[in-house]
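User: Predict structure, ligand succinic acid.
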Amino acid sequence: MALAFRSDAYIDGKWRASAKRFPVYNPATQEVIAHVPDLGAAETEEAIAAAHAAFPLWAAKPAKERAAILRKWYDLMMADLDRLSRLISLEGGKPVAEAKGEAAYGASFIEWFAEESKRAYGRVIPTTTDTRRYVTLKQPIGVCASVTPWNFPMAMITRKAGPAIAAGCTIVLKPPHQTPLTALALAELAEQAGLPPGVFNVVTTENASAVGKVMCESELVRHFSFTGSTEVGKKLGAACIGSTVKKVSLELGGNAPLIVFADADLDLAVKGTIMSKFRNAGQTCVCANRILVEDSIYDAFAKKLSEAVAKLKVGPGDQDGVEIGPLIDQKAIEKVERMVAEALASGATALTGGKKHAAGAQFYTPTVLADVTREMRVNTEEIFGPVAPLIRFKTEDEAVAIANDTPFGLAAYFFTKDIHRAWRVAERIESGMVSINDGIFSNEVIPFGGVKQSGLGREGGVEGLDEYLEPKFVNFGGFN
Ligand code: SIN
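Assistant: Predicted complex:
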């Protein structure tokens, strides 16, 4: 059955066509799926102006009314889960079953923040003098601009738009050029849910820098949020602060360690490693990037892991039973090929994989590399592909030192049965999120975010709403 989707941009409650369009590809086949408007600075200004005009009315709505509209948006997403997951898979490449997980995960942010919008509490502060009374109000920050990545075409949008809209803000979104169709499907459902014009705007473009520049420099935009690489995030963050001192939330790169201690349940560790490392073919910021394994169990773990990895089914996301889809584009596959070739040339061994896959030009065989050393790029840089490098360690101190020897600090995982070690290592690891005996943890109720060069701010959880609220202090004076 043909998949129905919108392919025009969405500004101020209207579908916006354009003579200038860019192609969207299926990464499994490199076939063109659609042509989408290639908008620029002028249309971005227009979307920001629409969001600015819509802001006072939306911000003034009682939270209960905003929550009802968001809840409707969530219900529509859940009713449309099948189409949304097929769309995510078609343009992003992940297997449909995994995409269904993303669609439900994405929708959950709208449900969660619909509920949280009613709890944007201020405070009454005990006074310092009997002539005054102090309170804080929490107020929506204003017009927000967001730039989202292709690896989660839906969830990374709802994790930003959900709290922004729930807080009473309005938003202009630039989805990635690889996966704009899911964003437009969300706009379609937002319209059906009754979100007023201008509250949620989608500017599609292939010219990210032109649109990003306007978003960062506009006087009307008060909050900017970005999920993507640290390199780009630093530039955008600097532009936002340097031009107009806007509030910035950044979800940037990671280099997640996954530590397997000798006292771990090895089967659980293998299962957790596969869940973490091979989710979305290794293309997530929280994917385990380097697997640190204690010397005494290194060989046993390497054997079990490589046997399990060799069984992963690779193919187009719409085929039954597929677990590993294509990488997003040619550049991505070339990077993985280069990093693996360098590691092999420097002494690493491929226990399984180590080469492209016959399923097509953008498929890479799930790979386990043994004898990886700390100097290799597969340890120091984010791989963003289905490659698990194994590094040997001898003591807990050494494992923690290797884990922390990176400018990044997004997620970390470790496997142990020792409760004291679990506390100790969780405290010592430098990362925003730590997962013990589990390879996956993401959901709407937790604060997702990193430390060091992995970003600023948190998305999801009770913390997620605060990113879009300003505390205003009010002094009531003149009491006798
Ligand atoms: C990401 O890769 O940035 C998001 C992963 C997640 O939400 O679990």
